[in-house]
Every structure is written in structure tokens, then in C-alpha cells.
Amino acid sequence: MSMRSSARFRSTITGAAVCSALALGSVLAGPGTAVASAETGQSATSISAASCNVIYRKSTNYEGWTANYSWAWNINVARGATGDRVREIQCLLIFKGYGVGAVDGDFGINTDAAVRSFQANRGLDDDGVVGANTWRKLRVRD
């Protein structure tokens, strides 16, 4: 086996082991639970939570956690808002350990409370508005 083939084989086996560990972790954790995976240095890191699949995406012009509902980084989102940006916020909050209730795209009382708690714990102004600083903290690796 050549060195190149050997490296490819190791990479394949390692990838299979990571996938198996993720699958086992998801089964053991149960539905609706965030499950962390090993970092692979690629955009393959993913976390499942309810209707969320949070991945760490790294590309030419983007690097950060996303649930693939929205790529927003600097758009203000606050209580009363609805839609995919809110779903993105809800998924990222769940991923970071903050309960929001249902991932329903409705920025209601539960999402507002989770945002304020997240902001306070990260040293941000806990105003309940997801603006540029809050987006940044939601998307970066801790």
C-alpha cells in the first residue's frame, strides 16, 4: 500500500469512526438533545437538536456555526419577529445550551428570555435584541 493510499485509508476509517460515534451519541442522548461531535477541521461538525442541524461552516467568506436557516451576522432581530432568522437564533441558542421551547420561528417570550440570558452570560447588553454582537457570539466557537 502506497503512502498516499495509506493516508486515504486512515482518513476513511477515521471518518467512519466519527460518524459511528455521532450516531451512537444521538441514540444515547435521545430525541431533541444537542449532541456534540469531534472536530475534524472540516465543515463536517454537526449537532442535532429537535428540528435543528447545527454545523460549523468554514468557507471563503464564512466561518461559524449555522443551522442553515439564515446567514445573518448583523441584522437586528427582536421579540415579535418571525421566520427563518428566528429559527436560526433558536437553533443556535439550543446548541449553546439555552432552552427556547419549540423551534417555531416565533420570537416570543421563551426565545426572548433565552436571548437575554445568553447575552448576560456573554457580557453583552441583555436587551433581548439579536444584533451584530449577539450574532457574533452565537456563531463563534467557545
Strand neighbour order, sheet with most strands: 1-2-3
> Overall 3D geometry?
globular
- Structure annotation, total helices: 4
Order of helical and strand elements: HEEEHHH
What's the average pLDDT? 77
What is the first-to-last residue Cα distance?
40 Å
Q: Mind summarizing the main beta sheet?
A: 3 strands, antiparallel
The count of strands amounts to 3
Share of residues in strands: 5-15%
Structural class: alpha+beta
Low-confidence sequence ranges: 9-48
Radius of gyration: 17 Å
Specify the helix fraction band: 40-55%
Write the layout of secondary structure elements.
Blueprint lengths: L2 H27 L16 E4 L2 E7 L4 E4 L17 H12 L13 H13 L10 H8 L3
Antiparallel strand pairs: 1-2, 2-3
